[in-house]
Design a protein that fits this description.
347 residues, mainly alpha, 3 domains, binds zinc ion
Length: 347
């Protein structure tokens, strides 16, 4: 425990962690983030120190404060240089990914294949892709795909699919982003962006440019300033820090990605669809249930075997009611249909 300073004794240390148990992640007193998730739940990550939310949900200001605290920690020794470098690399990677969304031509990469770079380029060339001809963002995406399908868990078919089917989509999206960047549009919800969209969709860059120029000339200086700001943001220096260089891991059976996918549980046999109709809401009266029992006794062994095959109690009551309806009125079309459903379902 190099990060926990100043315990007087082993007993004190033990007591401390015993007392801290309710407050750690999953504990009843844990100060969780609680942000609403798209899945419908809430985020159960611990909130950052001094913040209400976790790093993911805290927003840019909380992230900046977190970085400043981390920096102070680096200076006073509670954060190791490795931790700091790792966090900085992650931040640089995130910044690059965001910048690439605006302009995929920006230089940089988030994965370093090291000595495998040549093998990667050769594998791409084999399928007719010149890696140097791709935008850095797209080439970076392809490197990750290559590592996933050729290195982590080799799957030639999946790799081919990535290059033949997914790569063209990536390139098309990148081309569109480049067209927007060339028009100087960073926010696609602006008036100028709306004017350019249709022309751009049709592949007519000149018409889009003309539309934007016309709007730019006509509109107030506010939008001009907006566009200029966008340009400056693009021209600015990018963080040069690459993500951690990738080093091949020794093969081990415990590495998740090297293991084959787990077998999915077999799907339960679906019951045939029930006949449409409102379920009965009348409570089951004892005398009614007794009458249903009579009907079952009278029906014979074959029907009784069907009754035994129904598993849930409320389904059994339904079964008996449908049987009784059918016995009492064999010519009724609805009763016939409901009884036939049971016969088919339990055959
Ligand atoms: Zn959260």
């Amino acid at each position: 425990m190099p990060r926990i300073p100043g315990f007087k004794s082993e007993t004190q240390r033990e007591r401390f962690f015993e007392g801290a148990k309710p407050y750690v992640r999953g504990g009843p007193l844990a100060r969780i983030c609680g942000a609403k998730l798209r899945t419908g739940g809430v985020c159960t990550q611990l909130a950052l120190a001094g913040e209400k939310r976790c790093l993911r949900h805290g927003g840019p200001d909380a992230a900046r404060r977190y970085r400043e605290r981390q920096k102070a920690g680096l200076e006073n020794g509670s954060v190791t240089p490795e931790e700091w470098a790792r966090a900085e690399a992650r931040r640089a990677r995130n910044a690059l990914m965001w910048a690439w969304r605006k302009d995929p031509r920006l230089p940089g990469r988030t994965i370093d294949l090291g000595p495998d770079e040549a093998a990667f380029a050769a594998a791409a060339a084999e399928l007719g892709v010149d890696v140097d001809g791709l935008y850095p963002a797209v080439a970076d995406w392809l490197r990750w795909r290559w590592r996933r399908h050729q290195k982590d868990r080799p799957d030639a078919a999946r790799w081919r699919k990535a290059v033949r089917e997914e790569l063209p989509r990536q390139r098309a999206a990148a081309d569109e982003a480049v067209a927007w960047a060339d028009l100087g549009i960073t926010d696609r919800r602006t008036k100028a962006a709306r004017a350019a969209r249709a022309a751009l969709r049709a592949g007519d860059v000149e018409r889009a440019q003309a539309a934007v120029d016309a709007l730019r000339a006509a509109s107030s200086t506010a939008m001009g300033a907006d566009l200029r700001r966008g340009r400056e943001a693009h021209g600015g220096p990018l963080t040069p820090l690459p993500a951690r260089p990738w080093t091949p891991r020794p093969a081990s059976d415990g590495w998740k990605r090297r293991l084959p996918d787990r077998q999915k549980a077999p799907k339960p046999q679906p019951m045939p669809p029930r006949p449409v109709g409102r379920p009965r809401r009348v409570p089951d009266r004892p005398d009614e249930l007794a009458a249903l029992g009579e009907v079952l006794r009278a029906a014979g062994p074959q029907v009784r075997a069907m009754y035994e095959a129904v598993s849930r109690n409320e389904d059994r009551v339904k079964f008996l009611r449908d049987l009784a309806d059918y016995v009492n009125a064999p010519d009724d079309a609805g009763a016939q249909r409901r009884w036939l459903w049971w016969v088919q379902a339990l055959r």
